[in-house]
Amino acid sequence: MDQNRPILSRVATSAPDASTAIDRSITDFPVATPIDEDNYFRFHKPPPYLSQISNDVASFINYNHQKQRKVVLVTSGGTTVPLENNTVRFIDNFSAGTRGATSAEYFLEHGYSVIFLHREFSLLPYSRHFSHTTNCLLDHLKFSNNGNNVEVDDDLQKDLVSVLKKYQQVKNENRLLLVPFTTVHQYLFTLKLIAQELSVIGSDALFYLAAAVSDFFLPSSRIPEHKIQSHDHGGKLVVDLEPVPKFLRRLVDSWAPIAMIVSFKLETDSSILIKKATTALERYNHQLVIGNLLQTRKTEVVFVTPNDNEWIKLSEKDIENQLEIESLIIPKIVTLHKEWIKSRDDLVK
Question: Where are the annotated coiled coils located (predicted)?
Fold first, then answer.
């Protein structure tokens, strides 16, 4: 190897400049009503593969519920908004799926079965440790002496064995179901389907809604069939988007009314985080909002419940030891879910 060859340092290009963020203290859109739900799902076509997902999800829930396992739906990654039917251009959401993929692993470690509703090609449980260039697997592979086989170097061997054992156990026990989406329409149709399937297990179902869902979309009636030409409309692209209905209240009231539901609130302004999370809790009437700031989301979050606000933070020692904050988040949610199940049981006694 040429010792004088320059080495390109790894840089992060996806982190936005927080100082340029807009003011997000404005009022949110109204919650979706039953009429909004009916109109949305009636005037937009469901994904053609939805029936297959329905069968897979129903079988997965039935199998794991028979094993007396709790089931959590973890949503992860960002949704896209296509600007053409034969999509070339689209609006995307900032999310690699790190929170969701990491959290799914910790739920599995706590005995849950996980339906992982994720953006296609985003981070996945277990494989996340060796993908997306954060710890590129290829950097740890080398040829054997005869040049015909590939070996893993000692630095990665221990981690790889540990992760592989966990993955194989989960796979053998049928406790992880991967369900992909790309567009916001696919996400909403699939979320509703899975929620209704999960409603049959009542309070044993948990929703951990970590996906970054688009706030706006282009209705199907206004999406052009083919690629928008650059010379159309005088060389300008003007897009008139509609707000995505706030279906969280429909999830709480109708789709899975007995399940425990956890949502996230991401902000860039610390002065409004608690207020925005509390407002979301009051508007949607669910059990927990996890608030986090874009700048510090990997080291601290705040649990906002109807009765309390609790900050969860990694210490400096935790950060030095590369502890993941999800290792603190998930055990607390598991405890809250146990309390939720008990409260539902007490209501029917």
Answer: none
